[in-house]
Structures are given as structure tokens and as C-alpha cells.
Amino acid sequence: MKQTTQLHDPYTVISFSRQLSNVCFYFRYRFQPRILSARDVKDRTTTTLLGASVRIPICISPTAAQYSVAPPKGDILTGLATLKEGSLMVLSSHADVTIENFASEVCPSDGVFWAQTYLFRDRRNTLHVVKNAERLGFRAIMVTVDSPTDFTATSGRSDVTAEHLDPTDRDSAPNIKFLHGKKRENRNYTEDEMWSGNSGAGEIETFCHPTWEDFYWLKSQTKLPIVIKGILSAHAAREAVKAGVGGILVSAHGGRQLEGSPASLDALVEVVDAVRGSNVEIYMDGGVRSGTDVLKALALGARAVFIGRPAIWGLAVNVRRYTILGIDIVTSVVSSICVHHRYTLNKGTVFS
Ligand SMILES: Cc1cc2nc3c(=O)[nH]c(=O)nc-3n(C[C@H](O)[C@H](O)[C@H](O)COP(=O)(O)O)c2cc1C
Predict the structure, then answer these.
(1) Is the bond preceding 62 in cis, omega lying within 30 degrees of 0?
(2) Whether the CB of 82 sits within 6 Å of ligand 1
(3) CB-ligand 1 contact for 264 (6 Å cutoff)
(4) pLDDT band at 351 (very low <50, low <70, confident <90, very high)
(5) Residue 293 and residue 308: Cα distance in Å, rounded?
(6) What predicted TM-score, i.e. pTM, was given to this entire model?
(7) Helix (H), strand (E), coil (C) string for 272-320
């Protein structure tokens, strides 16, 4: 069914069909109660991700634009909230805070933080993120591979995005250090200079058709584990395992990239099957909006889920409290179902 309606969220416009497919696929799965069977079930929300312990399997996806939502310290506030909640946050390479400033206020080695990068056109940009992440105590590199080109034109995002961003004096994407083959000048770069149409400097640098060869190069540059973000098929998952990733984030970029790609919850099942037997960890993001959504993803084989928009919405309305809005409620739903019940999904997967 074709949908053309647009949904407005606080900072972007997403085509109804794509956002909604990520969200709606959760309704296709139902819990089957297993009555009178809940003896001695312990709190199961604590887990490890690439060996690091987290209190809840609900982590924060890398998102740019946090500065705009909660100026001037959006990413830092999310980082502090993450520490408080005992969760995991991935810092976006497109954040409007430098990785060094983020680290000086949040101290990544006190918690579990990963640094996200793209396979930038100029490899010095990728190295900038990776080497700083190593030095500053981040535990892994997440590399986003689902954006060979900027799908803005087909994604329903459109220029309206700009209306939601605070156009003031911040330096846009300061972690992208090399633009047009030269070191970035010592001044603030505007949103327009970086992201306008196809000619923005950051745009050209980011959306540059990388290949597996670029991925193997990145792998050779770091001892940190690599998590690949944006896998939606069994084939790509097997290639990623072959390439030596530590984890796979099954993701459709929150419906912001290729129009018509599968919903991530559906792809999760295929990816979990494809990597069975390896010790690669599988996570997913996209459309997680409630505790039962989290449980469904876990039951279908995800080790943890990641959230993008919900964390930013929380940041927008709850900016001073150093909490991720709603994560406590979501967590209590997850633990109460885990602790007090055992459920079976309708596809036969036992969640216990
Ligand atoms: C405003 C915004 C900015 C984003 N920026 C990035 C980014 O810089 N790097 C990246 O890999 N993904 C980015 N994403 C995608 C998220 O990491 C994530 O895949 C997606 O938001 C998950 O879907 P959800 O919002 O339904 O939870 C962004 C998403 C949003 C909404």
C-alpha cells in the first residue's frame, strides 16, 4: 500500500511509509503467555556487549543534530545520561561537538561508549575518529555502511530538516577535519557550507560510495572491535562476519536512507539465522518505541536494541535531568516481563 502522508517529528520530516514500516513491524509479532512457569527467573536486563557490562540492553544509536535539539550540549547530556543509566551510547561522527570535548566532559572510559564513523572519502577523516576513539577510552568503532550516497532526495527528508535545526553559530560537524582534500580552516563552518544539496563539503566527504576494500582498510587501522551498522540481508551479514566484525547492527538508518528497504525487525530474523554459529553479536535499531518492542527484538535474536529518535525526544523535553526520558519506564517493562513471566513469540521463539 502506498502512503504519501508526512509525519513531522521535532527535527526532521520522514516519509510515512518508511518510518512507519520500521515501527509497525513490531505489531506483526505477538507474545504467547506461558502460564504458571515463572519460578526463579532472575532479573535479566544486565548483559555484556563486546565484553563490557551494561545494565540494560537498550543503547543509544549515533545521531547528529543533538546540539540543535538541546543547545549547546546535547550530545554531552546524552552521554551523561547514558552513564547514569548504565547504558551504552554511540557518538556520531556528524555530532556538533568534537570527540575531544565530548570526552573531556563525559569521560568515555567511565562507561561504555562507542564512536561511529563513516568510510569517508578522505581516509584522514576516518582515522581522526578512530585514533581519537582509541586514545580517549571508547570501546569500539561503529562504521555506518548504508549511506553510499545521500538519499535525501528519495527519503522524504527534504530541506525541511533545516527548518528544525538551530542555524546559530555552532561549528557544523567539527569531527570532519579534511574538506576538499585540505585541512579544515580554523573557523566555524555553517550548516549550509557542510550540507547544502550535493555540494556541501561534509556531504561530499561522507556520501562517497565506499566498498569492502575501504572497510578492510579500516579494519587494518585499529585494534578496537568494529561494529558494522546498516546490514539488512543475510548475504551482507556473512560478508561482515568474514571481514572480522565484532558486531552487526541491523538497521535501516531509521528510515532515513534507501526508500523501500526492509524494516529492520524483519531483516533481524534473516541476519540472526545467517550468522548462527559465529560469535558475532547482533543488535538492531529502528522503530523501538516501547518495552514490548525491546522484548520482541531480543526474542528474535538481538543481543541489544538501539534507539535513535526516542533518545533525542527525551533530550528535547528533559534536557536538565541527565536521564533518557522514558528509559526507566521501558526498562521496568522489560524487567517485569522478564522477571515475572516467560513468553513465547508466535513464530515459536521462546523468550525465557
Ligand atoms: C536526527 C537523526 C540523525 C542521525 N544521525 C546519524 C548519524 O550521524 N550516523 C548514523 O550512523 N546514523 C544516524 N542516524 C540513524 C540512527 O543512528 C538510527 O539508525 C535510527 O535513528 C534508528 O531508528 P529510530 O529513530 O526509529 O530509533 C540518525 C537518525 C536521526 C533521526
Answers:
(1) no
(2) no
(3) no
(4) very low
(5) 14
(6) 0.88
(7) HHHHCCCCCEEEEECCCCCHHHHHHHHHCCCCEEEECHHHHHHHHHCCC
